[in-house]
Design goal:
By secondary structure, the chain is α+β, with helices and mostly antiparallel strands. Strands 1, 2, 3, 4, 5, 6, 7, 8, 9, 10 and 11 form an eleven-stranded antiparallel β-sheet that branches. A hairpin with a 2-residue loop joins strand 9 and strand 10.
């Protein structure tokens, strides 16, 4: 996904040519912290449902080898059946709001899962993270809310950051702190990380200009200062 977004050639020879003709760009890294555990991420931090899916797939490596992306589809169906929305208070640069979270994604880049530019306004050199959250009500209504979210994702025409919808929020901040009422699993760049909970909130911050990357010359919306 990173190569696709950064427009780095996927063939080895094309990528190597960037050593001579590429442009050096300083990009931010996201920082996820839960208690004493801290890890940086290049692309995204997933909170809740998608992190549960990643955990399930990592527990069954043989299924992933056999079915590839199909393993994620199976794990997603199972997770939808088990997981319920979790009340969360979100502090965005000091402004606190409450919601009932089923899925959250904090993006340093835009492309999510190779299928949608969920963090559609993200720039990797602006010192900010873009947090996208999907809420759902309790009980059987979580199914209808989830179906609405999926349907919106399939038919969306405008950018996600321009979308105004019930139980959906898009925010940008340099620092987020999430205080969940129950444990929520986390994944970073597609790898299970840990869980946050009532006694271990999740802090998301930015390590500014932490990494130098080589990208093709020319404009790219990921890099505001390019």
């Amino acid at each position: 996904m990173w190569a696709h977004e950064a427009r780095v050639p996927l063939d080895v020879a094309g990528a190597l040519r960037l050593l001579e003709g590429g442009r050096r760009v300083r990009v931010d890294l996201g920082v996820a912290r839960v208690g004493e555990r801290e890890r940086r991420f290049l692309l995204m931090c997933g909170i809740g449902l998608d992190a549960a899916v990643v955990e399930a797939v990592e527990r069954r490596p043989r299924l992933k080898r056999r079915l590839a992306q199909g393993a994620f589809a199976i794990a997603a169906v199972e997770a939808l059946g088990r997981r319920r929305p979790v009340p969360v208070e979100v502090d965005a640069d000091g402004v606190r709001t409450a919601r009932s979270l089923v899925l959250g994604v904090a993006g340093n880049s835009r492309l999510y899962g190779g299928v949608t530019r969920l963090a559609s306004a993200a720039e990797m050199d602006d010192g900010l993270l873009d947090l996208v959250t999907f809420e759902a009500r309790g009980g059987w209504r979580r199914w209808s809310d989830t179906a609405v979210h999926v349907g919106r994702g399939l038919r969306i025409r405008r950018a996600w950051h321009e979308t105004r919808a019930v139980r959906f929020a898009y925010e940008r901040a340099a620092r987020f702190v999430l205080h969940p009422a129950e444990a929520l699993p986390l994944q970073l760049d597609g790898e299970a990380f840990t869980s946050c909970g009532p006694d271990a909130p999740l802090t998301l911050e930015v390590d500014r200009a932490a990494l130098t990357v080589l990208v093709p010359p020319g404009a790219n919306p990921l890099f505001a200062r390019m």
